[in-house]
Write a structure and sequence with these properties.
283 residues; Rossmann fold; binds adenosine-5'-triphosphate; six-stranded mixed sheet; 23% strand; binds magnesium ion
Length: 283
């Protein structure tokens, strides 16, 4: 059982993908994908390069059409981008011509919040992610880690019901990544929303998630779903040595390896998976 951090966690389904099929031209990218995210839970999707993770995230964000199946966000059928969802991308997605402050404020301004509310929420989230003193700098003036902190602040500031994150920490160094994991979990414990987190790192998925979905490629399908049997709050440096952590890591790794030997995904896909996952992901 996980701790809710004092926040009421809904048990309803935040996202339901049923039989989602997506083609680009003649090529099937997603093939009858079923995936659910429990309200207030953190789900990671892992799989080889090209298996359709980003495509699936874009579908749930309402940014891409589907060719078959259905996507419900809190029981509502998707009709384009929804204010219920916020997205954090790998390349930070910040506006380079806006200060970090104005990047964080952006979504609130678009939502039509009053000037006072924009100021209050922006200040709060600038503090929460530790950007105080840097808020008037522009993205090119700060590190990747600080840019991604601004990305997190911008996403949480609009109080999304569903937060979609596409390899948000892939471009930062291992140490910064670890501190961003802690930041993300801390903010999420207090501003609980449902999260879909795309990653190539098995370790990252286990550290952060309640549930992990493993995909295979060509076409993209759900191979397996795991529940992470580790209590919260979690401290990364402590849980990585726990037997439950190492056995789940081994299980997911073998699943992906087994698919490799079976011819799908290809060896190059797994090489990409391995290089992105980092040394620590090998059992
Ligand atoms: N707009 C597009 N037009 C045509 N093909 C596309 C388009 N977007 C994605 N694809 C193809 O769909 C497949 C899945 O792409 P996607 O980006 O979803 O994979 P991914 O799992 O996110 O990969 P990675 O781990 O490398 O980010 C790939 O073969 C890709 O080339
Ligand atoms: Mg991708």
């Amino acid at each position: 059982m996980r701790s809710s951090g004092g926040v009421a966690v809904s048990s309803e389904l935040a996202v339901q993908c049923s039989g989602v099929t997506k083609r680009f031209g003649a090529q099937a990218i997603l093939d009858a994908v079923d995936l659910t995210i429990r309200g207030g839970s953190f789900l990671s999707v892992i799989g080889p390069s090209g298996c359709g993770k980003t495509t699936l995230l874009r579908v749930i964000a309402g940014l891409a059409d589907i060719d078959g199946g259905e996507v419900l966000v809190h029981d509502e059928r998707l009709r384009g981008p929804s204010r219920r969802c916020a997205v954090v991308f790998q390349n930070y997605g910040l506006f380079p011509w806006k200060s970090l402050y104005n990047n964080v404020a952006f979504g609130l301004v678009v939502q039509g919040e009053s000037k006072a509310a924009v100021r209050e929420k922006t200040e709060y989230f600038i503090d929460l992610v530790g950007l105080r003193g840097h808020e008037h700098k522009f993205p090119y003036e700060v590190s990747g880690g600080m840019q991604q902190r601004a990305g997190l602040a911008r996403a949480f500031a609009v109080s999304p019901e569903v937060l979609l994150m596409d390899e948000p920490f892939a471009a930062v160094d291992a140490q910064t990544r670890e501190s961003l994991h802690a930041e993300l979990l801390r903010i999420w414990e207090h501003h609980r929303c449902s999260v879909l987190f795309v990653t190539h790192s098995i370790e990252e998925a286990i550290v952060l998630s309640d549930d992990i979905v493993v995909m295979s490629a060509n076409p993209g399908r759900v191979l397996a779903r795991f529940t992470v049997p580790l209590p919260r709050p979690r401290r990364e440096e402590e849980i990585v040595n726990e037997p439950a952590f190492t056995s789940l890591r081994r299980e997911i790794w073998s699943l992906l390896h087994h698919r490799d030997r079976g011819g799908s995904p290809g060896a190059s896909d797994l090489a990409a998976l391995a290089s992105n996952a980092g040394e620590g992901d090998r059992p």
